[in-house]
Amino acid sequence: MALCLCAPAQNAEPKAVDITKNWDSKAPVYRISISGTDEAANLARRALSTHGSFRLTNADAHFNISFSKAQNNSVELKIDGSKPFSQIVYGKNTANAVAKACDLVVRKILGEPSYFTGTLAFVSDRTGHTEIYTSDILFQNIRSITNDNSDSLLPHWSPDGSKIIYTGYYRTKLMDLYEINLASKSRKTFANFKGTNTGGAFSPDGSKVAMILTATGNAEVWTSSSMSNAKNNLKRLTKTSAAEASASWSPDGKKLIFSSDALGGPQLYTMPSDGGTMKRIPTNISGYCSEPDWNKRYPNLIAFTTAQNGAFQIAVYDFETKESRVITSGGSSSLPKWTNDGRHIIFTKNYGKSRALYIVDSITQKQTALHSKNLGNCGEADFILKN
Most buried among 170, 179, 183, 189, using CB within 10 Å? Predict the structure, then answer.
């Protein structure tokens, strides 16, 4: 367990959090006050307010933190405590410098990594069609990726962040898989077999893509080489009379997790990524479990969507304890994606006809909206922390 470099004003020294041992919500929560120049301080408030271990306050703070805009896209970070800390933090722009400084705050106080410099790929209907965009966590640098005038869905990053694979109706108006190179802005058709082609997901080393195809009739899990297109080393993994969906890779690339309605309602299964026997995960929480995402930092944890009391919510399952825990409430929540800290999850929350991207702390269950309504209805995010 990592030690913190900065102790709070009130005597007890915070410790790094092992979330696999904190399902009882006993993670440390600290009161922090934020000051500094308006732009930098306001961005820092937005960022740190999303973290489950921090509560913003104007008085009686464990830590007084200052973010002041400096020269050349930098901010001066100061943390007051029993071991005061200060550093000039440089970024691509002010928002990026603040994000880096917030990551540093989490590292100094909790001894843990954080997600503020991560990048999202997501969809928005702000133009009338569901198109793909990328953005920083604070939604200060939003980039349009598709402009197809047709629905583009379910974007997934390549491991190096250079490409996005997604489901779209581009040109053919059929559900096919496409891949976009973000540097060259070039696009290629990755899978356009007869029927539905959807749910593309790169393996952790980037060499393969898992996907859902209906080429043989019902929806099955397939893999192929990520080079060229899906016809390269195409392999069918499941052979059931059921419908499979939402394939996700284990962090080591040796297994896939997906949903299947082989027993009636959708449940979660694993199988070796090179083929083998499906093994059901005993979530024991609902007759509907889908959209799993494997935790890269803590491989014993998965997040998934589950039906609860007439709505969908996000739950986490622990392979070691074989326990499930619902971590969201209100509205209807779906499509969870772990961030790099192995603790927070980006997800889509629906309220009636509106939907937005939220972040939730899997320990304290604190939920926070990530963007304003002027972005339209947003969802289906994938997260990456680029090197």
Answer: 179
